[in-house]
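Entry 14. Two folds queued back to back today. First construct below, sequence then structure tokens.
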Amino acid sequence: MTNYRTSFQMMGTIIELVVYHPNGEQLIRQAYQQLQNYAQRFTVNQPNSELMAVNHNAGIAPVTVEDDLFQLIKLAKARSQDLNNPFNIAIGPLVKAWRIGFNDAKVPSQNEIKAKLGLVDPTNILLDEANKSVYLSQVGMEIDLGAIAKGYFADQVKRTLVDAGVEHGFISLGGNVLTIGYSPKNSNHAWNVGIQNPLAARGDVLRAVPLKGMSMVTSGINERYFDVDGQRYHHLLDARTGMPITTEIASLTIISEQSVDGEIWSTAGFLPSVAEAMDYINVQAGIEAVAVSKEGEVSVTNGLVDQGGMIVPAEF
């Protein structure tokens, strides 16, 4: 079976695509263009993006956006209003204050943090379904889709490929993996995807997970951080305190059907303890998780079994 594959940089990460299809080369080109379009429209890193038009008009006027961006903001707002978890798309002002992941990252003053905390309430994102408009009701508010966008992009690319007749494929947007069918090359008829050990060097795989048409998304405190005076500050911020989340979790991997759900829960599940995270995720339909503690202990939700080198669905 002929397969086509490519790897390229976009959105600050490495993207890999594998497609089994006679017209795979053209389909990969189309996927590249699709991702490029999303990256230009949905980012906060380009001043003229469609999303930044919303942010620039905070406290001024509603902005009409394309339906896909509107629906993603609508979904993200709904998830952000659950105060039991740290997922929050209105966290943009805090992200900008910390700048974690950029060369000018810094610890904001307590006064600056206090000022930003008044701007991160997701209920102040006002949506008009009829006009597909988004209005941030306070000057200084900013939507940041960084915790959800890549999952949405991956889902849309998969939909396009499946509609074109692709039955086997692999989509990786950095730490976000989405599969189509199974890998024809593997004897277990699955895409075997590794979980990075968050306490070791890049490339050190802690466990592998066999995926068949499923998504796997990992977030970790080791991904983006900086050190000041012996203190490490990671990029997962708590909108209640303005500081990085205090947690015993080093990394959280979500296995789900939709990659956008994996993105949401890989942030939403970052609770203070592993036990709290497992209990919280166990009651979420269609969501499974693998948590690695700061001590290196691996925990899984009820639908998974840890076999040491491999983590498999309980019914696999």
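Second construct, same run, same settings:
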Amino acid sequence: MASTIGWELYRSFLGVFREGSLSGAARQLGITQPTVGRHIAALETALGVVLFTRSPNGLLPTALARTLRAHAETMERTAAALERAASSQGDDVRGVVRVSASEVVGVEVLPPILTQLRQTHPHLRVELVLTNRLSDLLQLEADIAVRMVRPSQEQLLARRIGLIEIGLHARDDYLLKHGTPLHMQDLASHSVIGFDQENAFIRSLAIKGFERNTFACSSDSDLAQLALIRAGAGIGGCQVQLAKRDPRLRRVLPEGVALRLDTWVTMHEDLRNSPRCRVMFDALVEGLQRYVQD
């Protein structure tokens, strides 16, 4: 019966779904190809459905398989959380901590914090998830998250870091060549870097009369925008604290554009007694507070 299906069958199902073949799933999972084949056959028999069809390009998931994927991935996250919880028992700080953060924070701010922490606790392993969407801590997508919005779920522990301000910046040689805008309307004659999709930052510009369709360069990747600003491609939004670290970046129109993001470090309350999560949580709070106060 479906209620007795073991996790290993769903694990092989996800492997084939992601790799598109039995052999690829076997390599990813570290088991043999015949074992993966038996798992898929057993799962199809237990569920009474067909999960994959053969094609010249490999095994293609059926519509039902695509529906089941989300449920299997929830099981995968739960299994990983169980393994992490088991590995963290005892007073020693060891095991895996999965940390979620935005692209820019994860690449530009967290690495020195995590490096220093691992020098103190070398048996601590870090999984850094870079995403600009909110990871669901209640569904165990991450153990700890750095968020630019106040958490609302009661089951989460949260520490407020402070405000991270975003303002318009450009490289010094760009401003030397094109001039420094003194008013918001001056941006119409500049190369402005922004997002593809509308968000709070774009809305803050639109209120002042600058529309998204006039961006010279646009990307929904914060890292791509930052790289464009650093390359001298134009004027774009950058964290003020981060820009201070680059002697070539200059802030423009500070009174015209100043988006302040309330920043928090959060984790599920069930992890409060986990040594590995506790030290990670405290290190992130301390390190990010130093960053905000720079």
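Quick look at the second one. The chain has a mean pLDDT of 86. Residues 164-259 form a domain with the D-Maltodextrin-Binding Protein; domain 2 fold (CATH 3.40.190.10).
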